[in-house]
Design goal:
With 274 residues, the chain is mainly α. Helix content is 43%, strand content 0%. The protein is built from 10 helices and no strands. Helix 5 packs across helix 6 and helix 9 packs across helix 10. The protein is globular. It starts with 27 loop residues before the first helix and ends in a 48-residue tail after the last helix.
């Protein structure tokens, strides 16, 4: 998910992170042989993944985390691996094997259309080391698409950027605890609040208090506030954030996070495999 800037065009949404187009899907054994991804914190991508309206509707209804009888995250990852492997087998049995370089709409919908957001995050973060880069990038692209749809629904005419950013904050607050422990979530949460406050004030309105109790979010948001008069590149990375140390925002180092209410943040790189 790309970090949002408050000056984006009226009809834009966060640009989905795309899938790579250079290789067929790797499975568990192959994925575990790979090493960490690009050091700049962003993935090299080419083709945007777009699910059909039917598949998107299925995903939207499954975005909020479940609180009762929730699976542990290791099980979520294991089930996600089994699910997409079964879908690969289904496509192959029908004479249409999954090919990430030339995937069809049917392929995307078949493999990813039934996964909820926790499963998508398990794939995107490669939580158990069993997911290929193609799979990670695809899951992240779909997650970005979900956030973009929620934001655009709050601003269908493209004339109320503040409403769009506020919807982004609300959407991010509704995701799983595992996703909230990631660096990318913290950056997105801070950036959407920053965009909301900036656009409200630029139109002469006082923003509501959307401060997060997460100390990492508060730290990133404070850094954005201090750099708001500099170039957009000083605030945003333009790509998926796996490690705060790679952000231009923290080029001089990531400051210590002060203790505060809310969950303890995990400042760590996600295991993005090539």
């Amino acid at each position: 998910m790309n970090v949002m800037e408050p000056s984006v065009g009226a009809a834009r949404q966060p640009a989905p992170l795309s899938t790579t187009t250079s290789s067929a899907p790797k499975h568990a054994a192959e994925a575990k042989e790979a090493t960490v991804g690009p050091p700049d914190g962003a993935r090299n991508t080419a083709a945007v993944v777009t699910l059909s309206e039917t598949a998107q509707a299925s995903l939207v209804t499954q975005t909020a985390p479940q609180t009762a009888g929730k699976k542990d995250f290791a099980t979520v990852a294991k089930d996600a691996r089994a699910t997409i492997d079964a879908k690969y087998a289904e496509l192959a049995a029908n004479g249409k094997p999954m090919d990430y370089m030339h995937a069809t709409q049917e392929s995307w919908d078949t493999v990813y259309g039934g996964l909820d957001r926790r499963a998508l995050f398990a794939i995107a973060s490669n939580s158990d080391g069993s997911f290929s880069k193609d799979e990670q990038d695809t899951a992240q692209s779909i997650m970005s698409q979900q956030q973009g749809q929620a934001m655009m629904a709050a601003d269908p005419t493209g004339n109320d950027h503040a409403a769009r950013f506020r919807a982004g904050v609300a959407f991010l607050e509704g995701v799983s605890d595992e996703e909230k422990a990631s660096a990318n979530w913290a950056v997105q949460r801070a950036a959407n609040q920053f965009g909301y406050e900036q656009t409200m004030r630029s139109s002469g309105r006082e923003p509501d208090d959307l401060d997060s109790e997460n100390p990492l979010v508060a730290m990133i948001k404070g850094a954005m506030d201090r750099l708001k008069d500099k170039s957009p590149e000083s605030v945003a990375t333009g790509g998926y954030v796996k490690d705060l140390k790679d952000m231009p925002l923290f080029r001089d180092g990531v400051p210590a996070v002060a203790a505060g209410p809310g969950p303890s943040p995990q400042i760590r790189a996600l295991d993005i495999r090539a």
